[in-house]
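RECORD TYPE: inverse folding
INPUT: structure tokens
STRUCTURE:
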């Protein structure tokens, strides 16, 4: 890929970035976070959406007890987004996210590069906040948002709205 096919920002902020396909999209900040923003639905515009529903408020990484709250670099690519975190617990961390054009799916790849001489031993954790809910003005159509129920089945996490057929899964 040529350099002009990408845009990289080194002073990341809460400015929006999108990872999109035809059936799912992610609205997050260039810093890798998911702030609670929104005009039509207060605090609900950013996150993971599969219209006509919202799936997640967002997802976050924790490395050795330290939340990765601000990416050192953000790169927008024609096919996804990349967030780079430098020298966290002796590691460089990269989060790449991609949405296939015709699928309601999000793929997230985490790459850890050890900067130290000795082998790294630590803990990487993914935190996900569910928010199965209908889009703006759905209440005018009589669509009610039910309680989200989440359960674990081995490595698979399943979420379901109690009053609607909406659901999600992640590994």
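DESIGNED SEQUENCE:
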């Amino acid at each position: 890929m040529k350099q002009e096919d990408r845009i990289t920002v080194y002073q990341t902020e809460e400015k929006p970035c999108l990872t999109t396909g035809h059936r799912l999209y992610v609205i997050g900040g260039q810093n890798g976070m998911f702030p609670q923003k929104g005009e039509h639905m207060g605090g609900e515009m950013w996150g993971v959406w599969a219209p006509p529903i919202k799936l997640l408020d967002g997802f976050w990484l924790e490395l050795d007890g330290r939340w990765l709250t601000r990416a050192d670099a953000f790169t927008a690519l024609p096919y996804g987004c990349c967030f780079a975190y430098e020298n966290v617990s002796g590691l460089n961390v990269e989060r790449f996210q991609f949405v296939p054009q015709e699928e309601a799916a999000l793929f997230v790849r985490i790459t850890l590069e050890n900067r130290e001489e000795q082998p790294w031993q630590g803990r990487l954790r993914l935190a996900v906040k569910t928010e199965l809910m209908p889009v703006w003005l759905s209440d005018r159509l009589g669509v009610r948002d039910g309680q989200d129920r989440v359960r674990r089945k081995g490595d698979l996490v399943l979420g379901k709205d109690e009053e609607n057929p909406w659901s999600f899964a992640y590994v």
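NOTES: The chain has a mean pLDDT of 90.
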